[in-house]
Amino acid sequence: MGNSFGQLFQVTTFGESHGAAVGVVVDGCPPRVRVSLEDIQRDLDRRRPGQSSLTSPRAETDTCQILSGLYDGQTLGTPIALLVPNEDARSKDYSEMERTYRPSHADYTYDAKYGIRDHRGGGRTSARETVGRVAAGAIARQLLCQRAGIEVVTYVVRVKDIEASIDSDRVTSAQVEATPTRCPDPQAAERISRLILEAKEKGDSVGGVVECVARNVPVGLGEPVFDRLEADLAKAVISLPASKGFEIGSGFAGTRLYGSEHNDEFYIDETGRVRTRTNNSGGVQGGISNGENIVLRVGFKPTATILREQKTVDKLGQHTTLTARGRHDPCVLPRAVPMVESMVLLVLADHWLRQQAIAGKQADAESFARP
Which CATH fold would you assign to the domain 4-369? Predict the structure, then answer.
């Protein structure tokens, strides 16, 4: 339960942090989409640990194996299974966590719900689970790029109280990847790097905000009432480990405005297309994409596992203290960028296929109605 996501473009992830492997099964991808292992590996390399001094030093290559669903570089329309072996797990670092609950982690809640848990590296609650999401997102990216021309770019916009200045309409993936912080504002990126390293040196952690922009999204994606596009986007990104907040468009800042200030006025551009002069809606109105850029933000808490002594309790209900061991990110933001991007791609792929199905039914109905 709860391990699958999507309706037509459906993904099911599997595996634990210190198990033999993690992976994903993608079902519903149309046939003849060109996908290469290099495309998938590129996104996995953006997510993997050990990229820089700002991330966890766990030495995983995250080498992806395609088990089914592709032939001669193209999808077959059958389930696509991808596997990534775990190569550098150090389970002994987590021996104390078998009986002691880490503050702000899922240790206690998993024990309370299931009566059993894999304490090694957090088991299935670890960010290691997102390997499958990112691999699936790489396939969704190829589908959306080839069939719909959709582009998704994601970046760090804030860490703690350091705010970047970024134009979401013009930022490029190359600018994002130019720095290990994945913040395309060079001045802010340098300050963010220093802040993360200072937190790491203190055995502490910091959080922040990731912003994502989806461009060239066609009008009409999204379903009433419970499958509104922004509702599915919210569920997708809030399902990520350490995520705590979601905004789209003006978000909470819009609550400070009058309606006359917030409303996006329509106009017809030189091509005859209906546009909005502003984009406070974030590309979605009434739960349906309006053709403008979709702009959303996700807030991530400071990494829960820190290398400082904290008060907690154990499985026997006794008060104790815990100084965590193991290898952890002092800030999840740089590696959260490809995770957020993948979840947005999965939602857009699913809703794009759903809209194609509606368009196909409408065409069939119109054809049947002709004399």
Answer: Chorismate synthase, AroC fold (3.60.150)
Q: Are residues 181 and 189 in contact, defined by beta-carbon separation less than 8 angstroms? A: yes
Q: How far is CA 205 from CA 129, 213, 360, in A?
A: 21, 27, 50
pLDDT tens-digit readout, 199-239: 999 999 999 999 999 999 999 999 999 999 999 999 999 99
pTM as predicted: 0.94
Domain locations along the chain: 4-369
* 109-160 pLDDT tens trace: 999 999 988 888 777 888 899 999 999 999 999 999 999 999 999 999 999 9
Residue type present at position 264 = D
Least confident of 263-277, 287-301, 327-341: 327-341
Nearest 5 degrees, angle CA 153-CA 327-CA 4? 50
pLDDT digits (tens, 9 = 90+) for 300-313: 999 988 888 999 99
Question: Which residues are bridge partners to 208 per DSSP?
Answer: 159, 300
